[in-house]
């Protein structure tokens, strides 16, 4: 269990901690949840950097690292569904798409094959994370009484239902589109991948 893999496991452990704190009715715990999420997200960058710099790349890490990322982001999206901020159907599309693509990529890695990530797919991930951070920061700041008082109008604008809905809708459409494009672009390689697996069985 090399250090990058330990950080990945830590990210998975921190995910339920984040959810518990964020969904708490206690303002201080909600505020702490933002820090927990940031720490978990930082481990994603740091374990990847360590793995590349010191060649700590293992099959276990190839499997666990992308899975841990999706667990963290999926948990955040579902937490906002629980709070009735996001619509469940959009979150499910994102989670299913990301888990399926991640599963195929991990399976391909074990078969010594690699799938190129499109620029749009990278933007998709970036937009998802920016949107999650946006919601987390605004929700957290709302619990800070000294900040919220006198700025109710600003917070109302930042948490406008239409703004959040259409932002999430855009992210959902982009996520779904990149998933379809991924299958079309890599259809031959995916076919070879699963044909090989069927023959080996």
CATH superfamily: CDP-alcohol phosphotransferase transmembrane (TM) domain
Number of helices: 9
First-to-last CA distance:
30 Å
Main sheet properties: none
Helix share of residues? over 70%
The value of Rg in angstroms is: 19 Å
Structural class: mainly alpha
Number of strands: 0
Shape: globular
User: For this structure, what is the CATH class?
Assistant: Mainly Alpha
Give unreliable regions as ranges: none
List the helices and strands and how they pair.
Blueprint: H1 3-22, H2 27-53, H3 59-82, H4 88-110, H5 119-142, H6 145-148, H7 152-158, H8 161-185, H9 187-200
Helix pairs in contact: 1-2, 1-3, 2-3, 2-5, 3-4, 4-8, 5-8
Please give a structural write-up.
The model has no long low-confidence stretch (mean pLDDT 86). The chain starts with a helix and ends with a helix. It is globular. The chain has 201 residues and is mainly α. The chain has one domain (3-194): Four Helix Bundle (Hemerythrin (Met), subunit A) (Up-down Bundle), CATH 1.20.120.1760. The longest helix is centred in the N-terminal third of the chain and has 27 residues, at 27-53. The chain has helices at residues 3-22, 27-53, 59-82, 88-110, 119-142, 145-148, 152-158, 161-185, 187-200. Helix 1 (3-22) runs antiparallel to helix 2 (27-53) and helix 5 packs antiparallel against helix 8.
Label this structure with key terms:
Four Helix Bundle (Hemerythrin (Met), subunit A), mainly alpha, 201 residues
Short description:
By secondary structure, this protein is an all-alpha fold. It has a single domain (3-194), classed as Four Helix Bundle (Hemerythrin (Met), subunit A) (Up-down Bundle), CATH 1.20.120.1760. The chain has helices spanning 3-22, 27-53, 59-82, 88-110, 119-142, 145-148, 152-158, 161-185, 187-200.
């Amino acid at each position: 269990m090399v250090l990058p893999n330990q950080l990945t496991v830590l990210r998975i452990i921190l995910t339920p901690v984040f959810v518990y704190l964020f969904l708490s009715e206690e303002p201080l715990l909600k505020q702490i949840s933002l820090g927990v999420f940031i720490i978990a997200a930082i481990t994603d960058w740091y374990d990847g950097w360590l793995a590349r710099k010191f060649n700590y790349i293992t099959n276990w890490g190839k499997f666990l690292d992308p899975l841990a990322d999706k667990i963290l982001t999926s948990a955040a999206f579902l937490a906002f569904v629980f709070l009735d901020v996001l619509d469940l159907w959009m979150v499910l599309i994102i989670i299913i798409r990301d888990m399926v693509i991640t599963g195929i990529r991990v399976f391909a890695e074990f078969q010594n094959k690699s799938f190129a990530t499109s620029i749009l797919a990278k933007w998709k991930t970036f937009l998802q994370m920016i949107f999650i951070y946006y919601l987390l920061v605004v929700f957290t700041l709302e619990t800070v009484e000294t900040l919220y008082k006198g700025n109710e109008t600003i917070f109302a604008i930042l948490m406008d239902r239409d703004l959040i809905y259409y932002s999430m809708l855009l992210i959902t459409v982009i996520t779904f589109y990149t998933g379809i494009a991924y299958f079309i672009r890599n259809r031959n390689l995916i076919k070879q991948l699963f044909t090989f697996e069927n023959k080996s069985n």
